[in-house]
């Protein structure tokens, strides 16, 4: 057990390292700590590699000034966090390092939060990973290694559902479909494959011509008409490609961010797609119209964006780069109607109708 925002004092650290990876944590229930952000930080001469857990104020779009807790990951560079995947229930997350993956569990006790490192030999022994992904239902967890090894585990038993040592030359990107049936993975050589998770086998290789490279990938999150989004490099063109997941055929292309793309992500409600470039720009696209709704220039000042993740409850994105760490950006896109706003609007219409009805009959003479 390590750290809390209550009785335990945060150890005295030196100058902490830059953020190497980050993720949102949405916890069930209310309270001030419902929405959290976890930062993975590199080590420095005066501080080991660490994890920081912060409370997030969605209204002010800011992190708390001090972490709720801070946990040392180890003593050497290979212990530095490289990627973080949070379970959908918000009570645990997996952190990848050069040595393998480590599992952490969040436990609330009274008014404090504790972080417990869990023993998980199947994860700790996988070696360096490029990609981590939980399924939407939380029942599956996948890792894609630098060595091209794909593993899909049942969660939380960690029973292997698929174990393919030669899935790719080396992983580039990976995602699991909304219904948890399919996994898409891309390789550093430009190829892409679809896997049928329950059958534990490859389903199809996505077609491409000799001059095409498929790089980033993610499934849509709109359950009504699911798609697969991929970024495609074709000569000097940088395209965003949409595929129909019923037959894995291409529906169309769009030039959205006219520069090399380093990462993509979809909001949890499926309405927006984010693309991060290799020179630090980011754009957010309305999925229904496939038009850019928000363009953020140089959010990472010329450094490739390594990850983008939408906030679970607000139109905010969390992005990271190896040079500049993490940035939180509030998006200039239309906000969703909340339930109380809809009821307030209906009540306003009712009151306006009642006033109009009263006024009409007050000034009308009945014969």
TrEMBL record:
It is a single-pass membrane protein. It is found in: Endoplasmic reticulum membrane. InterPro entries: Sec12-like, WD40/YVTN_repeat-like_dom_sf, WD40_repeat_dom_sf, WD40_rpt. GO terms for cellular component: endoplasmic reticulum membrane. It holds the Pfam family WD40. GO terms for molecular function: guanyl-nucleotide exchange factor activity. GO terms for biological process: endoplasmic reticulum to Golgi vesicle-mediated transport; protein transport; regulation of COPII vesicle coating. Keywords: Endoplasmic reticulum, Membrane, Protein transport, Repeat, Transmembrane, Transmembrane helix, Transport, WD repeat. SUPFAM superfamilies: WD40 repeat-like. The chain crosses the membrane at residues 340-361. This is SEC12-like protein 1. Gene3D superfamilies: YVTN repeat-like/Quinoprotein amine dehydrogenase.
């Amino acid at each position: 057990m390590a750290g809390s925002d209550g009785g335990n004092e945060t150890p005295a650290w030196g100058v902490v390292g830059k953020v190497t990876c980050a993720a949102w944590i949405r916890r069930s229930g209310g309270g001030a700590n419902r929405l959290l952000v976890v930062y993975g930080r590199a080590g420095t001469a005066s501080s080991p590699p660490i994890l920081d857990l912060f409370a997030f104020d969605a209204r002010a779009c800011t992190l708390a000034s001090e972490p709720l807790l801070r946990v040392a990951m180890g003593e050497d560079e290979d212990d530095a966090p490289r990627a973080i995947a949070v379970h959908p229930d918000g009570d645990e997350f997996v952190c990848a390092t050069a040595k393998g993956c480590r599992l952490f569990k969040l436990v609330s006790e009274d008014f404090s939060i504790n972080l417990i490192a869990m023993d998980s030999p199947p994860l700790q022994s996988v070696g360096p990973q490029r990609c981590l992904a939980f399924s939407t239902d939380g029942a599956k967890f996948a890792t894609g290694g630098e060595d091209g090894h794909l593993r899909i585990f049942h969660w939380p038993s960690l029973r292997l559902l698929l174990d393919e040592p030669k899935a790719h030359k080396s992983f580039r990107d990976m995602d699991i479909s909304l219904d948890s049936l399919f996994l898409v993975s891309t390789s550093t050589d430009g190829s892409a494959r679809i896997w049928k998770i329950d059958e534990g086998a490859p389903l199809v290789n996505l077609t491409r011509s000799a001059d095409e490279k498929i790089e980033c990938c993610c499934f849509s999150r709109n359950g009504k008409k699911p798609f697969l989004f991929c970024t495609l490099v074709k000569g000097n063109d940088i395209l965003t490609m949409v595929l129909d997941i019923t037959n894995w055929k291409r529906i169309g292309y769009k030039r959205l961010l006219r520069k090399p793309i380093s990462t993509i992500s979809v909001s949890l409600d499926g309405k927006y797609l984010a693309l991060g470039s290799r020179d630090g720009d980011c754009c957010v696209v309305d999925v229904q119209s496939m038009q850019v709704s928000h363009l953020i220039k140089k959010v990472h000042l010329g450094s490739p964006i390594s990850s983008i993740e939408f906030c679970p409850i607000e139109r905010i994105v969390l992005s990271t780069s190896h040079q500049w760490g993490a940035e939180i950006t509030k998006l200039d896109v239309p906000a969703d109607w909340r339930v109380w706003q809809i009821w307030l609007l209906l009540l306003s219409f009712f009151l306006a109708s009642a006033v109009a009805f009263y006024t009409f009959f007050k000034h009308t003479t009945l014969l």
